[in-house]
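Sequence in, structure out. Go.
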Amino acid sequence: MGLEIERRFLVVGEEWRALAGPALPLRQGYLAGSPQGFTVRMRIMAMEQAWLTLKAPAEGIARHEFEYRIPLVDAEALWGLAPDRLIKTRYELSLKGGDWVVDCFEGANAPLVLAEVELVSAEDRLEIPAWCWQEVTGASEWSNAALARTPIQQWSDQRRRDYGLA
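Output:
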């Protein structure tokens, strides 16, 4: 059984770019979801690889995650069927303390920038960089599935201002 242990942060500024690898364009389509947090997602990365991912809540900040490579042609067909979608550019970071990435969202979720770090254990010690403004781990409205369903451009002006997004 796959398990994902992840912390997420809103990002301010551009300091993270000094640590960033090449840009990886991603498209994610959400095919199904439940109020309990179960999701079925397809992801296309850089028009070269594709995955089908099933996620379900576990304990604390952990989630069950099952990910399977699928043919790109199948992923494109699923993209066309997905009721909820998002597009972002991912940057892998050279940073200690876990596998860090920064996602820069496009379209109706721009100018949102989120950092994620995958950990081995929820108890792992973590040095949080200064450009990580606010932790949003576990806040359901910041999940990629929620952002695909209700992009930040649909949020109220005040709510976007509260997070520095307007």
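Check: The mean pLDDT is 96. The beta strands are 3-11, 20-33, 39-45, 49-57, 62-69, 84-93, 99-105, 113-118, 132-135.
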